[in-house]
Amino acid sequence: MGPGVLSEVLKDLSRFEDPAVLVCGDTYDDAGVYQLTEDIALVQTVDFFTPMVDDPYMFGKIAVANGLSDVYAMGGIPKTALNVVTFPVDCLDVSILGDILKGGADKLKEAEVSLLGGHTVEDDEPKYGVSVTGIVHPKGIWTNEGAAVGDVLILTKPLGTGLITTAIKGELATTEEINEASQSMETLNKLAAEVAHKVGQVHGCTDITGFGFTGHLLEMVGTASISFLIDSKKLNFLQGALEYAKMGLIPKGAENNRRFVNDRVDFKVEEYMEMTLVTPETSGGLVLAFNKNQAEDYLKEMQKRNQLAYVIGEIIPERTKKLIIK
Q: Which end of the chain has less Cβ packing within 10 Å, N or C?
């Protein structure tokens, strides 16, 4: 569901006010946080979706990596998960569901997260994901907001998963493109988060998923008197992604995202790039805001581990638009 529709639906919901709620949906953060003790807070999130790749085992791995990512983006450590499943048992062989769940279980094991159970529903279309609970110190929460003028922004994965998965549905994607995109989507953001904890103070963090690159960056800008200046030439893209964008192979969700962000983004790029940056992503990387010295340390540490991380822009004093992409 697009961010504009979602905001409209949620705006009038009543809520029990509890001082132990440290982070909730009001700030558009990646997960909610509830304080239990002076030293422990729960991080909770849920996500599930329809298959974006044909291989059911890979789909399971990607869905779990995507679900865990919200906890990493809050500075937390995921601990337990529950499966969320819908499946057309009368139309598809249940062995397909078995492969999906095996992929999910293997990814949870890699992340050292305990699977406690789940819930299944018969439906016309298969969907899979996880509800995740993690822990974080109440004083160590990473939120969307917190970046300051002079900070730099780092992204830890390439962009373009939404374009490649659209090409898969259209039977246009090559084997190489599918493999590269799948590998990126199934990669946990665990190491990227662990290195960030090691380096120092994270001023702001989010992961790039359904609201697209621009949507999630605007969540980081928030209401602060700052703007983000992004250099599109510094962005990395999956093989084939930009070519599909130039062909106009854009998913429906991109237009919804574009309408939501349009008034707050100054696009100084070509149309195909604009559409690429509003296209929904699946299991994307973390965007982290650091001061310049810590950013350099982070890049060095990630390089030592042969992990992708690259500077994409900087935080500047507030301009007319909250996000400038040149």
A: N
Which tokens hold the place of 61? 């791995």
pLDDT per residue as tens digits for the range 199-244: 989 999 999 999 999 999 999 998 899 999 999 999 999 999 999 9
Place of tokens 């510094």: 234
- β 286-290/152-155 pair status: antiparallel
Largest CA distance in the chain: 57
Find out whether 218 and 263 touch, Cβ atoms under 8 Å. Answer: no
Give the CA distances from residue 224 to residues 37, 208, 218, 221, 310, in Å, rounded to whole numbers and listed in that order. Answer: 30, 20, 11, 6, 24
**HEC states along the chain?**
CCHHHHHHHHCCCCCCCCCCEEECHHHCCCCEEEECCCCCEEEEEEEEECCCCCCHHHHHHHHHHHHHHHHHHCCCEEEEEEEEEEECCCCCCHHHHHHHHHHHHHHHHHCCCEEEEEEEEECCCCEEEEEEEEEECCCCCCCCCCCCCCCEEEECCCECHHHHHHHHHCCCCCHHHHHHHHHHHHCCCHHHHHHHHHHCCCCEEEECCCCHHHHHHHHHHCCCCEEEEECHHHCCECCCHHHHHHCCCCCHHHHHHHHHHHHHEEECCCHHHHHHHHCCCCCCCEEEEECHHHHHHHHHHHHHCCCCCEEEEEEEECCCCCEEEC
pLDDT tens, position by position, 64-101: 999 999 999 999 999 999 999 999 999 999 999 999 99
Q: Cβ distance 83 to 118 under 8 Å?
A: yes
- pTM summary value: 0.94
